[in-house]
């Protein structure tokens, strides 16, 4: 290589290096402000189609989609309507690819009903892990919660809670909530039946056994009063002004014991009976 | 049979000369660090992510070896006419095919063992780094069983690749046909299930019948995919798995026999 060639080589190298350095600085500066929140890229394909593209790498692809959604949501950017739809689609894809991944359904429950105002979609997606994770009570618990809290569907909430309560090691709270919603949806008999059945479980510890027995007593009391109320209504076409009237008019011998409160709470307008103020005020 | 082993040994040495295994070891080392970094990005069930990553990398490297290495190896033999050097000795075409398959399979096996060990160590490290997020029913025996079935699926694909190369010497055509078989094998079962579950088409409709026919020709590679099972420690049906193993081995046998049959009738000049 002669001096001329070396000079041309060096000059070219320096020119390219200088332009690269300047452009690299500019690119870094521009991309820095964008961060993770610049956009959420989710393939517009429906959940059922995406496994064909993932082949045997379904788990890996689900992780990737989840990371993208997590990074986008974590960037604290205000989520637009279109982006909410993308999040929903991404979660659907991730759950179709890997229906067992806890992080996906936790994220679906955290985002869809609360931030995206899509409780029905959350329920639909949570049904996927509920079907696959027969040993996990969480999906059923979240579905029941969404029915109760967002959709005010107590009947469905209690039905889901009761089904979830059958899962081994599910918290007692699910059973108790299920029975509470059963009262609201006039499924008291079903609640008593389920709780009585649960008492037969030899693995139940002493505290849980006591809690369930207490709840059965409360529910049986409600059922007794409700029967009296319905009979009263059949005779007089209205609900009585208070529960003492039921005793005075011989529809009830006396008020059954309430293990939760000094007496049962009664709401005349719809003839509903509650064992504590939580249910009554709701 | 000794001659087939000789061809296998030569093929194996040829692959070693191409330094394929060095690349695999490098991939294994990268896997260590990538697995630990990526699992750290998940707050729940990070152990599952580690298993996912480990097994997927073994599969991925096996696919690269088949699509880019094996096709190249056999096509070059024919294209560069080195095959004549082998066939001019007392080595039959059948011995050549069996030898080639055995040699290339050996590379796949070694790759699976090496990467499997790397994956196991990286999964173990990930379990330690994500403290307490080990999948609920995780078992190492299931993890290694998954690697075994994954390797069988790679060996099936390897046999199919050899079949396509024996029909067409053109590397790219063989690559496309093998890739097509891979995609069909992975998705065939899924497509059929979706069509039937959504009732989009009737069970006796033509497309469903076509898929049913295809399922007798193409291998159901999805049956060998135990990644999710290993990642969550899902229960396995031993008898069903034994049938899957038998299905894989018999499929390899059928394809190799067909390959030998076609290759013996082929004019190489």
Give the topology.
The complex is a heterodimer of chains A (282) and B (269).
Chain A: H1 3-34, H2 50-54, H3 58-74, H4 81-97, H5 102-111, H6 119-132, H7 138-149, H8 154-165, H9 172-184, H10 188-199, H11 206-236, H12 243-248, E1 265-267, E2 272-274, H13 277-281
Antiparallel strand pairs in A: 1-2
Helix pairs in contact in A: 3-4, 4-5, 4-6, 5-6, 6-7, 7-8, 8-9, 9-10, 9-11, 10-11
Chain B: H1 2-17, H2 20-39, H3 46-79, H4 82-87, H5 93-129, H6 140-167, H7 171-198, H8 206-217, H9 227-232, H10 238-264
Helix pairs in contact in B: 1-5, 2-3, 2-5, 3-5, 3-6, 3-7, 5-6, 5-10, 6-7, 6-10, 7-8
Descriptive notes:
- The complex is a heterodimer of chains A (282) and B (269).
- Chain A has helices spanning 3-34, 50-54, 58-74, 81-97, 102-111, 119-132, 138-149, 154-165, 172-184, 188-199, 206-236, 243-248, 277-281; strands spanning 265-267, 272-274.
- With 282 residues, chain A is mainly α.
- Chain A has a two-stranded antiparallel ribbon.
- The N and C termini of chain A lie far apart (89 Å).
- Chain B is mainly alpha-helical and 269 residues long.
- Chain B is built from ten helices and no strands.
- Chain B is globular.
- Chain B starts with a helix and ends in a 5-residue tail after the last helix.
- Classes of the chains: A mainly alpha (282), B mainly alpha (269).
- The interface between A and B is medium-sized, with 20 and 31 residues.
Largest sheet of chain A: 2 strands, antiparallel
Alpha-beta classification of chain B:
mainly alpha
Order of helices and strands of chain A: HHHHHHHHHHHHEEH
Strand order of the largest sheet of chain A: 1-2
Instruction: Give the assembly state of these chains.
Output: heterodimer
Shape of chain A: elongated
Taking all Cα atoms into account, the compactness measure Rg of chain B is 20 Å
Mean pLDDT of chain A: 84
Poorly predicted spans of chain A? none
Indicate the percent of residues in helices of chain B.
over 70%
Largest sheet composition of chain B:
none
């Amino acid at each position: 290589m002669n001096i001329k060639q070396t000079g041309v080589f060096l000059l070219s190298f320096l020119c390219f290096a200088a332009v690269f350095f300047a452009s690299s600085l500019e690119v870094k500066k521009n991309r820095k402000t964008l961060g993770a929140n610049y956009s959420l890229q989710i393939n517009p394909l429906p959940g059922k189609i995406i496994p064909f593209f993932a082949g045997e790498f379904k788990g890996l692809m689900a992780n990737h989609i989840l990371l993208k959604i997590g990074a986008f949501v974590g960037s604290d950017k205000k989520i637009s309507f279109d982006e909410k739809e993308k999040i929903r689609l991404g979660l659907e894809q991730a759950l179709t690819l890997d229906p067992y991944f806890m992080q996906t359904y936790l994220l679906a429950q955290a985002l869809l009903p609360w931030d995206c105002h899509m409780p029905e979609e959350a329920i639909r997606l949570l049904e996927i892990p509920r079907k696959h994770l027969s040993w996990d009570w969480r999906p059923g618990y979240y579905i029941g919660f969404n029915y109760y809290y967002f959709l005010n569907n107590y009947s469905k909430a209690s039905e889901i809670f009761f089904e979830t309560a059958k899962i081994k090691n599910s918290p007692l709270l699910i059973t108790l909530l299920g029975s509470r919603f059963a009262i609201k949806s006039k499924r008291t008999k079903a609640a008593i039946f389920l709780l009585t059945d649960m008492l037969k479980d030899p693995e139940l510890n002493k505290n849980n056994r006591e809690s369930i027995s207490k709840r059965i007593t409360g529910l049986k009391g409600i059922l007794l009063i409700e029967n009296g109320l319905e009979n009263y209504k059949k005779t007089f076409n209205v609900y009585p002004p208070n529960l003492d009237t039921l005793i005075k008019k011989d529809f009830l011998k006396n008020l059954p014991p309430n293990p939760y409160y000094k007496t049962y709470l009664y709401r005349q307008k719809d003839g509903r009976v509650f064992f504590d103020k939580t249910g009554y005020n709701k | 049979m000794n001659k087939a082993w000789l061809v296998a040994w030569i093929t194996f040495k040829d692959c070693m000369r191409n330094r394929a295994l060095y690349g695999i070891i490098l991939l294994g080392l990268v896997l260590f660090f990538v697995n630990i970094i990526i699992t750290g990005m998940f707050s729940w069930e990070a152990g599952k992510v580690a298993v996912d990553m480990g097994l997927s990398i073994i599969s991925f490297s096996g696919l690269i070896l088949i699509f880019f290495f094996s096709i190249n190896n056999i096509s070059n033999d024919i294209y560069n006419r080195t095959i004549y050097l082998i066939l001019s000795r007392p080595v039959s075409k059948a011995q050549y095919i069996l030898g080639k398959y055995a040699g290339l399979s050996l590379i796949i096996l070694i790759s699976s063992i090496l990467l499997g060990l790397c994956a196991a160590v990286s999964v173990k490290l990930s379990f330690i780094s994500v403290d307490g997020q080990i999948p609920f029913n995780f078992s190492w025996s299931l993890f290694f069983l998954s690697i075994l079935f994954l390797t069988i699926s790679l060996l099936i694909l390897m046999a199919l690749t050899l079949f396509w190369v024996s029909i067409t010497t053109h590397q790219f055509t063989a690559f496309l046909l093998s890739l097509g078989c891979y995609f069909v094998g992975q998705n065939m079962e899924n497509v059929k299930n979706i069509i039937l579950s959504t009732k989009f088409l009737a069970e006796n409709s033509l497309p469903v019948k076509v898929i049913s026919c295809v399922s007798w020709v193409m291998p159901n590679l999805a049956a060998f995919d135990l990644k999710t099972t290993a990642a969550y420690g899902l229960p396995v049906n031993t008898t069903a798995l034994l049938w899957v193993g038998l299905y894989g081995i018999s499929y390899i046998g059928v394809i190799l026999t067909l390959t030998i049959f076609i290759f013996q009738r082929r004019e190489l000049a």
